[in-house]
Specification:
The chain contains ten helices and eight strands. It is α+β, with helices and mostly antiparallel strands and 272 residues long. It folds into two domains: 67 residues, Winged helix-like DNA-binding domain superfamily/Winged helix DNA-binding domain (Arc Repressor Mutant, subunit A, Orthogonal Bundle); 175 residues, GAF domain (Beta-Lactamase, 2-Layer Sandwich), CATH 3.30.450.40. It has a six-stranded antiparallel sheet with strand order 5-4-3-8-7-6. Strand 7 and strand 8 form a beta hairpin. The longest helix is centred in the C-terminal third of the chain and has 28 residues. 33% of the residues are buried. The C terminus is likely disordered. One of its GO terms (molecular function) is DNA binding.
Length: 272
């Protein structure tokens, strides 16, 4: 694919913005961003200044730490309207956390990646803290990510595996192509995905994909817990609960889509 001028700078800026966003409300200093992005200090600082100029990143004047800016909130609100998820996704995550006692999540699909956007913890004292809002994985890595790739058709799933092959081999060597294809087949057979500690030992998860009215895979609901809380029999119970919540969320998306006004036909400008 031919390189487009400026794409490297844009990719690096987005890399810095994601690194800032992963800290949520904790905020992050320049040294940590340099480590997280693996970019040099002058480059990170220059990109931060550019992001700050557009309101995407802000800096605490006392601590000099960085956090996501107001423009991110504005764009997030617009994206929420576009996907029609909004409050309903928050409610679904909350119900799963309360009913299971474990941590529940909603992740969205970003082409060949999955990005966690919502998390709520249940009342169990045993929790896994691996997945946080802003965490990003290649499709197939993690329960929600696996649920998404398994819900794609074969051609799209293979495209995701191919595009992420180098990254997965480098960062997740256990996730070989053969292993991922076997996990996809099992997920399709069961109707929900299970991650038995393959990303981080001891951190297990169960998930189901969420589809838009068009059939497009837009995200996944997940329950994550420590290994001792997810034996086989409970995986099946939670799997059914998550699938039910996913179908409920999909029904909301269909209702929301039905209320949208029909696009007006454009008038012809040609002379009659």
């Amino acid at each position: 694919m031919e390189s487009i001028p400026g794409t490297q700078a844009i990719a690096r800026a987005l890399c810095v913005l994601r690194a800032v966003a992963r800290t949520r409300t904790a905020r992050v200093n320049l040294a940590q961003l340099v480590r997280d992005t693996e970019l040099n200090k002058p480059t990170v600082h220059r990109l931060l200044l550019a992001l700050m100029a557009d309101g995407m990143v802000e800096q605490d004047p006392k601590s000099l730490r960085y956090f996501v800016g107001r423009e991110c909130y504005v764009l997030g609100g617009i994206a929420s309207e576009r996907f029609g998820l909004g409050r309903e996704a928050v409610d679904a995550v909350s119900r799963l956390a309360r009913s299971s006692g474990d941590s529940a999540f909603f992740s969205i699909r970003s082409d060949v990646f999955a990005v966690c956007v919502l998390r709520e913890d249940g009342d169990s004292p045993l929790k896994t803290h691996v997945l946080q809002p802003g965490t990003r994985h290649p499709l197939g890595v993690g329960a929600g990510s696996l649920a998404m790739i398994a819900a794609l058709d074969d051609a799209e799933a293979e495209r995701a595996l191919k595009e992420n092959a180098a990254l997965i081999e480098l960062a997740y060597p256990e996730f070989t192509p053969a292993f991922l294809r076997a996990e996809i087949a099992t997920t399709r057979m069961n109707g929900f995905a299970v991650n038995e500690g393959h990303v981080v030992r001891g951190s297990w998860g169960v998930a189901a994909a969420v589809h838009a009215p068009s059939g497009e895979v837009v995200g996944a609901l997940t329950i994550a817990a420590v290994e001792s809380r997810l034996p086989k029999e409970r995986q099946a119970v939670l799997g059914k609960q998550i699938v039910d919540e996913a179908r409920r969320l999909e029904a909301h998306l269909r209702r929301a889509a039905a209320l949208l006004p029909e696009p007006k036909a454009r008038k012809s400008t040609r002379a009659g």
